[in-house]
Specification:
single chain; alpha/beta; Rossmann fold; Dihydrodipicolinate Reductase, domain 2; 2 domains; 13 strands
C-alpha cells in the first residue's frame, strides 16, 4: 500500500485529491496537512467527504514518513518544502508553479519571486511526457489554463500548421481558490464576464514554452472569469500556413490522441461543453471550423479542478508508482 501525504489539503485541489484517493485501492492517505484546520475532521471543511475518517494535521515535511507527497501549496511555498521531501526519498507531485519552467528566469519574471531551490522536475502533462513521468521523483503539475490550451494546440504546432496562436479562455470561479476575494464575491461575478491579466497572465509563458517543444510558435493568451463553479473552455484562433480542410485538421487530432485515455476528439462542428467534463479527468477537443477569411477555430473543455489540477496529479502518481494510469480517474462528466 502506497502511503501518501497531501500538504495543503484544505483547498479545492486538496479536496479533489482526497476524493479520488479515498477510492484508490493501492493508496492510503496518512496525512492531510493544514495549519489553519489542524485537528479538524476533514468533513468539516470538505463536506462531501463525510465518511473519510481523517483529521487535518500540522505536520512539517520533516515529520512526514510517506512514499509520495502532493504539495498543494501556493507558488513560492512549494520551493521551501519540496527539496526536503525529495532529499528524504519521497516522490513528489507539486501542484504549484514553482517547478514548471525549464528556464528559472522566466519563472522569476512572471511570478515575481526569487527561486531559491531549483530542482530538476518532469513536466506533469502525461500526453507530453508519459515515459519521463514514469521514472520521475519530482513532477510539476501543469497550470489549469495551460492544460486546455496545450492539448488543443499540440497537433497544430507539431504539424507546422501555424506559427501564431491566440488562446481565449474562460474559467469557473473555483480556479481562483477557496478563499473569497472581491473578484469572486457573488454580486461582482454573478451575471458578469470579467477579462483579467489580459496580456500578462503567468500561464501565457508556460503555454509558450511547452508548445515550443513541437515547433516555432507565438502564443497570445487572455483569460476570463465567468459565473460558473467549474470548468475551462479554451478557444484557439489561428490562420493555417497550409491549405487544409476542417476534416484534415480533425484527422490530425484523431491521430495525435488515438491512444490517450483522457482526451476525446469530437467531430467537425461539435462544440465541447464544460458540463460534459465536469468532475472528470477528460479533455474534450472539437469545433475545427474555418471561416471565409481562413481562420481556424479549435475548442477544448476541461474541469479546472480535475484535468486542470488534481486529476492529472493522480494520473501522474499512477504513472510514477506503476499503477494502471486510469485508476480511479475513468469516471465520465456530470452533464447536465
Amino acid at each position: 500500500m502506497l502511503e501518501v501525504a497531501i500538504i495543503g489539503a484544505s483547498g479545492y485541489t486538496g479536496g479533489e485529491l482526497l476524493r479520488f484517493l479515498d477510492v484508490h485501492s493501492e493508496v492510503e492517505v496518512v496525512a492531510a496537512t493544514s495549519r489553519q484546520y489542524a485537528d479538524t475532521p476533514i468533513r468539516k471543511v470538505h463536506p462531501h467527504l463525510h465518511d473519510l475518517d481523517l483529521k487535518f494535521s500540522n505536520k512539517s515535511p520533516s515529520d512526514l514518513d510517506v512514499d509520495l507527497a502532493f504539495t498543494a501549496t501556493p507558488h513560492g511555498a512549494s520551493m521551501n518544502i519540496v527539496p526536503e521531501l525529495v532529499e528524504k526519498g519521497v516522490k513528489v507531485v507539486d501542484l504549484s508553479g514553482d517547478y514548471r519552467f525549464d528556464d528559472i528566469d522566466i519563472y522569476e519574471k512572471w511570478y515575481g519571486l526569487k527561486h531559491t531551490n531549483p530542482l530538476e522536475a518532469v513536466y506533469g502533462l502525461p500526453e507530453m511526457y508519459r515515459d519521463k513521468i514514469k521514472g520521475a521523483d519530482l513532477v510539476a503539475n501543469p497550470g489549469c489554463y495551460v492544460t486546455g490550451a496545450i492539448l488543443a494546440g499540440i497537433p497544430l504546432v507539431k504539424e507546422g500548421l501555424v506559427d501564431t496562436i491566440i488562446a481565449d479562455s474562460k474559467s469557473g470561479v473555483s480556479g481562483a481558490g477557496i478563499n473569497p476575494t472581491p473578484a469572486t464575491h457573488y454580486p461582482n461575478i454573478g451575471d458578469n464576464v470579467v477579462p483579467y491579466a489580459v496580456t500578462n497572465h503567468r500561464h501565457m509563458p508556460e503555454i509558450q514554452e511547452k508548445l515550443a517543444k513541437y515547433g516555432d510558435v507565438r502564443v497570445s493568451f487572455t483569460p476570463h472569469l465567468v459565473p460558473v463553479i467549474r470548468g475551462i473552455i479554451t478557444t484557439l484562433h489561428c490562420f493555417p500556413l497550409k491549405d487544409v480542410t476542417p476534416n484534415d485538421v480533425l484527422e490530425m487530432y484523431k491521430e495525435q490522441y488515438k491512444d490517450e485515455p483522457f482526451v476525446r476528439v469530437l467531430d467537425v462542428g461539435e462544440i465541447p461543453r464544460t458540463s460534459s467534463v465536469r468532475g472528470s479527468n477528460f479533455c474534450h477537443i472539437g469545433c475545427f471550423e474555418m471561416d471565409e477569411n481562413g481562420r481556424l477555430v479549435v475548442i477544448s473543455a476541461i474541469d479546472n479542478l480535475v484535468k486542470g489540477a488534481s486529476g492529472v496529479a493522480i494520473h501522474n502518481m499512477n504513472l510514477m508508482c506503476g499503477f494502471p494510469e486510469t485508476m480511479t480517474l475513468d469516471g465520465v462528466g456530470l452533464h447536465p
